[in-house]
What does this fold into?
Amino acid sequence: MRARYDPETLNPAGFAGANKRPISVLLIEDDEGDAVLVEELIADAGADITVDWAASMSIAEDKLTSARPDCVLLDLNLPDANGISAVDRIAKRDAALPIVVLTGLNDEHFGMSAMASGAQDYLIKGLVEPETLHRSLLYAIERKRAELTAVDLHTSLARAQENARLERALLPLPLLAENPGVEIATQYRPSRENALLGGDFYDVVQTPDGTVHVMVGDVAGHGPDEAALGAALRIAWRALTFAGLRGNERMRRLEEILRAERAGTGIFATVLSVALWPDGLGFTAVRAGHPGMLLHGPNSVEWLEPPAGPALGLGAQQWPQNELELPEGHGLVLLTDGLFEGHAGIGEQRLGEEGLLELARSVAGLPGAAFIDALIQGAEDLAQSHGGISDDIAVLRVERTRR
It folds into this structure.
């Protein structure tokens, strides 16, 4: 049984004209009789469609300059454009404009070719019914919209994949000797959805003298600019370390790089840089506005907070150089404040450094990598009632091993 033709059912929400605005059609047809016939078909369809007639392609191009229709109804045999070239001329004017072509009885293959060249539909003169014409115009508009949406989606996915490859390349791999004398465990979690890289950064390298250099840092903010700045600082720290710069000299260079690379004058970064000496238990720590670190031993955890200088980006030139000892069987846990700045439990209470220390002590018996995992998961569980941890997190544990 044939369904009754109802123009309203052909104009559901989402179609052009669903908001009761008339659909505007530019009819490009050199035959006045055919143009009148098209207007009569549209009138017979009872559709809310306005038609603007152009007798040639040049006239149509002038009209497109001043007003954009919802759809073009295009005859393929014009005095100044013929066949696929007519479709191409419209597409060059506006690639997002839907096109329905009109062909003669003997030119159906031109209609198929026109669709292959970018038209959304074709109609054969003399075989067009009012409802067919109305449906074709509506569907052409929606097909074009779907095509453009698909292109945008593909572009977005391609861009996301490219960004992911770039971010993956910027994530650090520890650069250590074959038998480095240390065990490293790391965890990194950006706050941005679907991102691999955030404003937090870390690195581990071993210089030819056997010293193991460990660094963790945090750029204020969470967006792509902060992620890019964090990557620049990490790469710079590695290069400066291998160039032999240490302590204040290295920090001053990082300060200069931050000022040159940051997107705004108010952006700053905190850094904690540690150097484990190749002989003995000693290590050096330099803090530029960064939180302290955890000393994780067998079934014990303590908070280490050696004297610090200002964060990078604030114009400082001097930072305290701290010499400490890492007891045998203990590991240093360097971290960013995203791990303890999140909420913990009911209300607006935050975990804080004391809460983090208490949490760390509850899982102190776990070995290195498992200890880090449990620490992050514990902080995440405590913040769950507030939607979980919303900041970037970088955690790095380093422990000396026997060579």
